[in-house]
Amino acid sequence: MKLFAFVTLVLGSACGGTPAVVPTQMPGPAAGPPALPSSAPRADEPAAPVVADTRVSAAVIGATEQKLVTKYPAQKERIHSGVQHAAALWRTSDGDFAAFCLEQYVGEPAARDALFTRLEAIDEQIHGHDLEIGRAARWNNEVETGPMQPVDGLLAQYDPSTHIVDDLFASKVGFAVLLNFPLTTLAERIANGASYDRRQWAELRLASQFEARIPGDLQLAASAAGATADQYIAGYNIWMHHVLAEDGARLFPSGKRLISHWNLRDELKANYAEADGVAKQRTIVKIMDRIVTQTIPAAVIDNPHLDWNPFTNKVTVGQEVEADAPKDRTATPSEAHEPDSRFAQVLAHFHAARAIDAYSPIAPTYIERAFVDAEMPEIRVRVMLTEILEAPEGAQIAQEIQGKLGRPLEPHDLWFPIATTSTAEAELDAMTRKKYPTAAAFAKDVPRILHDL
After folding, report:
1. What does the pLDDT look like over 147-204, one tens digit per residue?
2. Residue 266 to residues 114, 294, 430, Cα–Cα distance (Å)
3. What angle, rounded to 10 degrees, do the helices at 97-104 and 58-71 form?
4. CA-to-CA distance for 192 and 187, rounded, in angstroms?
């Protein structure tokens, strides 16, 4: 990963683009991260929800702690932490906070071990079956099983996990976990993690599931935004035989259908071994450019009935249409651009994440949650990227790649495989078909492949 990032950043500046500007020294802790645009909503943008202040009063929290400390005087620090974390997410509608804490706090070591064992087993069952159900619901949307049915899109949006944490808070299981097991910040885990044993890490992972109380409908909305984006991409195919090069040549074989963007990227990488590889790569780059800038004609998306030159953006009636071409696609040329559908997916993710911000006190923005989930603080990522950009090996790598290619570097060369093969894609395809003539033959060999890996 670090090598890929290194090559990507090096080539980005070596290909004639504007070089990245980085500080010669990282700012000290007091400087903080660079200023970000204001998060205040525009007039046409829905505001984040306001969460009513229904927290437990300080007097109730203090009295609850005192009663528990009286019973377990040696556990004052753990009691304080547990009560505070549980109180932070308790709502008045949840009932009598003090009575709950006095009933559910477990002070005896043997009883606490038994509680952990019980919760660990239940947690495994809940999340294991959740994964299984979600995979089954998305199966026909993510695996080639034949024509998609209208209901498959609805099933892909179903996410059984969206209400798990909300339901566990409603049943008060989440509060029992917070009351009895430590909830830590990323900074605390980084500072003290080396000293944690396996049990301590397990307790932290258990409690971290309940660091925020996000309503299930907001979780469902975020999941739906992701599923909708996945469906949008799943149908975003380009029939390459009908994409023409800058000179109008037809470079790609019939039947090659590539999804945006990873199939396009993989095709680009595979063409380093081809004699006409650079022409194909430049054509793919232009396709990507049209997609990203939303200047791709809508009619050519997943449509082999039309030919398209991405350099001129001209659309013509398709020639040599494949036998398996979808029958419901238009054969009438149109150069009308795709609407801002791609950005609409990004905007839907933004609104779904922003609605969650008010319910996530530990990490109140999506960006902060991303760093917490990755367990890498922002400053560490910034330092790492700065080190990559400033490393003297960058120029050496760029020079080596340019020597192997025998031409000046171009933007797409950020995907140049360092350990590139000299075997053409067509030859590799033939070797693969010979070894695995059927899908069943490949499936039979999977155990051996995994064992050898």
Report:
1. 888 898 889 888 888 889 999 999 999 999 999 999 998 999 999 999 999 999 999 9
2. 51, 21, 18
3. 20
4. 9
Confidence of residue 29 (pLDDT cuts 50, 70, 90): very low
Rounded-to-integer distance, Cα 173 and Cα 207, Å: 11
Chain position carrying tokens 């109380």: 213
Which amino acid, residue 236?
Answer: Y
> DSSP letters of 186-208?
HHHHHHHGGG--HHHHHHHHHHH
* Residue 181 near residue 206, CB atoms below 8 Å: yes
Confidence of residue 71 (pLDDT cuts 50, 70, 90): very high
CA distances from 197 to 118, 200, 202, 203 (A): 19, 5, 9, 10
Task: Take residue 19 and report the two structure tokens written for it.
Answer: 């070089």
Cα(341)–Cα(339) distance, integer angstroms: 5
Distance separating alpha carbons of residues 207 and 174, to the nearest angstrom: 8
What residue type is assigned to position 183 of the chain?
A: L
Q: Is the dihedral of CA 423, 429, 434, 439 positive or negative?
A: positive
Residue 308 in contact with residue 243, Cβ under 8 Å? yes
Q: What is the pLDDT of residues 333-387, one digit of tens each?
A: 999 999 999 999 999 999 999 999 988 877 899 999 999 989 999 999 999 999 9
Cα-flanking dihedrals φ and ψ of residue 409, to 5°? -70, 145
Rounded Cα distance between 113 and 398, Å, is 56
> Can you read off the two tokens belonging to residue 314?
């001209």
In order, the DSSP letters of 362-384 are: SS-SHHHHHHHHHT--HHHHHHH
Distances in Å between the Cα of 371 and the Cα atoms of 157, 188, 207, 401 are 26, 14, 18, 33
DSSP 230-276: HHHHHT-EEEGGGBB-TTS-B-S-TT-EEETTHHHHHHHHHGGGSTT
**pLDDT, tens digit, 9 for 90 and up, residues 226-261:** 989 988 988 899 999 999 999 999 999 999 999 988
242/240 Cα distance (integer angstroms):
5
Residue type, 323: A
pLDDT beyond 90 at 141 = no
* Distance, CA of 262 to chain centre: 14
